[in-house]
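task queued by scheduler; priority normal; single chain, no ligands, no partner chains; default sampling; output format set to structure tokens
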Amino acid sequence: MTSLPVRDPLADHLLTPENAAFLFIDYQPSQLATIRSMDAALLLKNAVSTVRTIKTFGARSFTRPSTFAARRWLNARSPDSSR
């Protein structure tokens, strides 16, 4: 039985932690307050789950609220405050 060749994680056409990054920007309380197409708590839960999934995958992730107050608000409303 032969093994498949080892893939180069930087040149691979599939996503790998080495060739992927996730950027999450401008998640502000004022933007959440205006969302009417879905429940704001569910939207926040989805955002937190997405970032945690990316971190579990091992890709670089950047979460950048545009204001310090937004970051505090997201941390206070996190479904899992134990981080």
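post-processing summary
- The beta strands are 21-25, 60-64.
- The helical segments are 29-34, 40-57, 68-76.
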